Amino acid sequence: MSIGPGSTIGIIGGGQLGRMLAMAAAQLGCKCHIYAPDEAPPAAEVSARFTRGAWDDAEALGRFAREVDVATFEFENIPAAALRAVEAETLLHPPIQALQTAQDRLSEKAFVLELGGRPAPFGAVDDERSLEAALETIGTPAILKTRRFGYDGKGQVRIGAREEAAEALAAIKGAPAVLEGFVRFDAEFSILLCRGADGETILWDSPRNEHEGGILARSTVPAGDLLAEQIAEAAALARKVAEALDYVGLLTLEFFATADGPVFNEMAPRVHNSGHWTIEGALTSQFENHIRAICGLPLGATGLVVPRVEMRNLIGEDVDRWRDILADPSAHLHLYGKGEGRPGRKMGHVTRLLGVGD
Ligand code: AMP
Q1: What average pLDDT score do residues 275-301 get?
Q2: Mutate to test the pocket of ligand 1, among 178, 255, 265 (most ligand atoms within 8 A of CB)
Q3: What pTM does this model have?
Q4: HSE-CB for 247 with a 13 A CA cutoff
């Protein structure tokens, strides 16, 4: 069964990812209905309907689900119970199991390890004793990360020496955590994969990603010849992950490229910041193919439309440069309608198509 033009797509979560999904859905003649707890989320601004509701309001979630033809999510920290309330009433993609796996850094690493992937050395940390034990085997430098609710470098502390252990645990307020060995990487990259309801799986060119302060700053495509082999190995793992989860929609896996090959960092069961370049830079964007996949429609081609593409995030007051960005004819400006540019807040992004007449 496929869901076509005129249908209503429910999007759980109302951030910029939901906003760009809604815009892609509109292009296909679909309407979107956003469910989020926020007062005026960026996605609601461009969607036909918006339900403001709490994650634990099963009744509101059920009502929302009955009003849509298919539902998806754009935010990783949604309680699984909220998605179960939606799934009880309508079709939901990607699967809840994918979200649950990705929500917990420990289960995510164990899952990928089982499929033959290689995460950085890691150990579970619940208290001082288990942190000591993990430091004993992993050594320093290491990174202590909360198992849940971390994003954009939040919920992470670097441990340079054993003496810093207690301080690091206090910094994450003793939350359940994982200790990860510090990876000496040459570059970071991500695999962007989309799997259709019939199992057809497509990939885009992998972007090379550069972070600043734990937040993605820049993605460039192609990632370069040096990464090609690593990308092929990482892509094979991503395909296995998608198959094991019977995944439908856009799936992202992030990797470190190291001298010993690709090291898995984390996965996101959703469209991803490192795929924003696909809006103008690829024949079909990650957003459009996600909508096509969850609707059971054929997927679009993913090839590059120009030799090189660069995406930069506009974080905090970077957004004030919007006028200068518009003066650059190769730049495509995207603003998320978030109002004030607070430090660390993703306000928009700019994509430049390169290699043609420049
Ligand atoms: P994460 O939220 O886990 O993706 O971490 C954000 C960024 O911090 C990554 O993209 C890396 O740049 C850096 N980082 C995270 N974990 C490690 C690690 N184990 N070794 C080195 N750098 C890391």
Answers
A1: 98
A2: 265
A3: 0.96
A4: 27
